[in-house]
Description:
single chain, two-stranded antiparallel sheet, eleven-stranded parallel sheet, 297 residues, oxidoreductase, Lucif-like_OxRdtase_Rv2161c, Luciferase-like_dom, TIM Barrel, globular, Luciferase-like_sf, alpha/beta, 17% strand
Amino acid sequence: xxxxxxxxxxxxxxxxxxxxxxxxxxxxxxxxxxxxxxxxxxxxxxxxxxxxxxxxxxxxxxxxxxxxxxxxxxxxxxxxxxxxxxxxxxxxxxxxxxxxxxxxxxxxxxxxxxxxxxxxxxxxxxxxxxxxxxxxxxxxxxxxxxxxxxxxxxxxxxxxxxxxxxxxxxxxxxxxxxxxxxxxxxxxxxxxxxxxxxxxxxxxxxxxxxxxxxxxxxxxxxxxxxxxxxxxxxxxxxxxxxxxxxxxxxxxxxxxxxxxxxxxxxxxxxxxxxxxxxxxxxxxxxxxxxxxxxxxx
Length: 297
């Protein structure tokens, strides 16, 4: 079983100079199949909407690095690991800049980028970037339209939501068209995955919050929707994030991964270590331990 891990993007490890590079290089050498980032712009003192499942914001989010910079650093010091996101809030970025950043990352990594995109849930973050939160679904569809052009056409022109791209030469293309995966459990989000995405971004928690059979039935629903839309349901990928609560033992994590992976059969699986470690060294120690328990592929 091949397994990936979150980069030390949040919490105390994020403040360690050179920590992303040191972790990425060592984790790949140890056998990590993928290196992954999330996206957190703000950690409000008094959030309009608190972090899901809590009444505030996790303290780790008060220290947060930029996901694009982290992936660029990881690309520079690795050779084989998938570089993924679960999830980048695509609708909080200016679309043309966003398309250029993703393209550059794929070229820099030699075609290893797996962009996992979503629309976020924080009104505070949307207010900070000046984007109406009510438009996020429409804006995500627009971003997907733009990426399709940006990655396939040498001349791009596009009228989007609040912006216009004049007919322009865009000849830098990805090494291969990055497989865009989309997050979400809501009805509209699942329909968008079925109609438009290359894959889905489910989340499994340790201890278990959403039963495995809920994830498998949701995936079956998505694939049925893809077939109805005239797409090949078997071509829809799955990149599974395993969220782990603070204090969880490595053996419990390995047991959970061994349970969910054979059932859901994801193409990519990674463990989010953000709530389990305080330093880059701890991140690396836990990575090595989990690779021993789960396997190195």
